[in-house]
Amino acid sequence: MPVERQLWDVEPIKVPKDLQRYPKDSLKNSGLPEIKCIVFSPNAKTDEKWLTLERKYSDKMLFKTTLSNEALETVVNLQRSLFEKDVNDTMLLCLDDFGSGAKYQNAYGAALDSLATKYRWAGISIIGAYHGFKQLSPVQRCQMSHWFLFRMSDTEAKKITPELRCHLDDKTFQEMMHEATAEPFSFLYINTRSPSNDGVFHVNQIG
């Protein structure tokens, strides 16, 4: 029996035949478009940047304003079933501004922790945007392979130093981070999967 993308029972969508995922294969056809990216953001229906993307890529992307343990578990389980049948069947999840607080712990914290350890086995890539380092749980932080750090306070810089300084001492790392983010929109890119120390830190570029 084919695995179907029945991920969005709360907000069902009608899809014309020309947008069905496998229009020429009735055995594979799920009745949903070939969704390649799902965006979870409280501002998905109000932020003009998200709205622009939704208008342009409505056949490839879904935008959700709420997040829950149940929704994420469904995404991971069904995507893993699809990925096991076809390793080219991958998906991108964007998590925008879902972080700390009681709601985080109760509503979707457990699923985010589970996602952090299982996403590779489901053919899922993740992009997360957060206002603070500690918005991510320790489990999620240790699984992150790439970091983009923008300008932050000294207090926040001290919080992240022990986990992200890699082979550098605390003072050197913090000086490098502040120098890298001195200009508007400048950033420090950290690749924790780099095979050598020389490839870990990059200023305003992706190495």
Structure notes:
Helix 2 (69-85) packs parallel to helix 3 (102-118) and helix 5 (154-164) crosses helix 6 (170-180). The protein has a 4-stranded parallel beta sheet. It has 207 residues and is α/β, with parallel strands linked by helices. Mean pLDDT is 80; it is low at 1-33. Helix content is 34%, strand content 15%. The longest helix is centred in the middle third of the chain and has 17 residues, at 69-85.
Mean pLDDT across all amino acids = 80
**Strand line-up across the major sheet:** 2-1-3-4
Give the helix level as a range of percent: 25-40%
- The DSSP helix count reads 6
**Backbone structural class:** alpha/beta
| Uncertain residue segments | 1-33
Determine the strand fraction and express it as a percent band.
5-15%
**What's the total number of strands?**
7
Major beta sheet, specifics?
4 strands, parallel
Q: What is the 3D shape? A: globular
Give me the secondary-structure topology.
Blueprint lengths: L36 E4 L7 H9 L4 E4 L4 H17 L5 E6 L5 H17 L5 E6 L8 H6 L2 E4 L4 H11 L5 H11 L7 E4 L9 E3 L4
Parallel strand pairs: 1-2, 1-3, 3-4
Antiparallel strand pairs: 5-6, 6-7
Helix pairs in contact: 2-3, 5-6
Can you give me a brief rundown of this structure?
The protein has helices spanning 48-56, 69-85, 102-118, 138-143, 154-164, 170-180; strands at 37-40, 61-64, 91-96, 124-129, 146-149, 188-191, 201-203.
